[in-house]
Input
Amino acid sequence: MQKKSESSVTSLKRAIELLQALSELGPSRISDLSRHLGYTQATTHRLLQQLTEGELVCQYANDKRYALGLGLATLATHAVEQVSHGGEGPGGLKSLCRPVLARLGAALGESVFFFVRSGFDAVCLDRWEGQFPIRTLTGDVGGRVPLGGGQGAMAILAHLTPNECEEILRYNVPRLMGLGTLDGVHLRAEILRSRQQGYSAEDTGVIEGVAAVAVPVWDAAGQVIGALSVATLSTRLSGDRLSVVVDLLKNEAALLSPHINPFDRVLRRSTKPSA
Output
């Protein structure tokens, strides 16, 4: 019985790693996935068949490659809803941040976002839609981006401990290529600048015509757990207006922080990076 239980745990672990590999590599053949994960092709094929039955993986008819299935999208939607509801009770994180976003949105007329850290990523927990339609790296609520990619994710990364920051950089620098990051040196320079000025603001040009600014948010224990961010047209985020936006964000973050419970389940921190 114990051996069967251990075998089930191993299979589950491998299935998770396989899904993470497909997320990282994109549509792939069995041989490529086997090589990437260090599994035999027989093991990889068996896992793919099981995941396909559950609609978590699909296979392209034209070239036999495997990709993430639509079943995952359904699960992801439910996960976002459940995590959000988990923070909507009295004192819950989402219930705390919602009026903050509303005040900032009304004062600025811009799109405002609240990000929380999730392992090596930043996840959009909630957003307030402004008067200017814009695209962002994270997209809608529940979207994620590697820490360091985008201003909200940079504001979080820059205010972690030096050791933690370095650990994340070792993993995230390759993931950030193509998101406005030139290299590790450029990223470290931005981290230093964000840390010194207390906010993150850089028009990377990744999304043409859009700029953003973000400030870190701490919990009641003094640990950085997220960020408040404003994203808008590049022309609306410069000079004196940028200074005003930063001041408003910092004021709201300072009011919010003492009320954030470090043990809120929305803030459970993964110790492993997502693929």
About this structure: Residues 269-275 have pLDDT under 50 and may be disordered. The domain at 2-68 is CATH 1.10.10.10 (Arc Repressor Mutant, subunit A). The beta strands are 57-59, 66-68, 111-118, 121-128, 144-146, 200-201, 210-218, 224-233.
